[in-house]
Specification:
The structure is a single chain. This protein is mainly beta. It is 0% helix and 56% strand. The strands form two sheets. The protein has a five-stranded antiparallel β-sheet with strand order 1-4-9-6-7, with no helix packed on it. The radius of gyration is 13 Å and the shape is globular. The chain starts with 7 loop residues before the first strand and ends with a strand.
């Protein structure tokens, strides 16, 4: 998924298929994400001058947390790298609205992948 393909958002800016202003409390929503087979990992392409974190939630910005990503600084706001969580809740199946909710720090986001490792 590209970050700019979100269906709804709160507090973020979008440009050239990226998301910026991803600060604590801000979120982006993706409608009808198919988790039918269950995934145990989540990867994100991001850039940040700060360390931080965000939650992956289902149903709402305050919904069930299925994973948390803690990220380190990449050096600046334009240097992208991959990070993620290898401990996504793989028991969650079916089609869900997914919310990516910033909890700490600030980042620019480019792409996301749900996967099995």
């Amino acid at each position: 998924m590209h970050a700019c393909d979100f269906n709804d958002a709160s507090g973020v800016n979008s440009w050239d298929c990226g998301i910026g202003g991803f600060d604590p409390g801000n979120w982006i929503k993706f409608n009808n994400v198919d988790l039918s087979t269950g995934y145990n990992a989540f990867a994100v392409s991001y850039a940040s001058a700060l360390s931080g974190s965000f939650d992956i939630r289902i149903g709402s910005p305050n919904g069930q947390i299925i994973g948390t990503v803690n990220y380190e600084p990449t050096g600046d706001w334009g240097t992208y790298q991959w990070s993620g969580t290898p401990s996504l809740d793989s028991t969650v199946h079916g089609v869900h609205d997914i919310y990516i909710v910033s909890t700490n720090g600030s980042a620019n986001l480019s792409e996301f992948w749900f996967k099995n490792e």
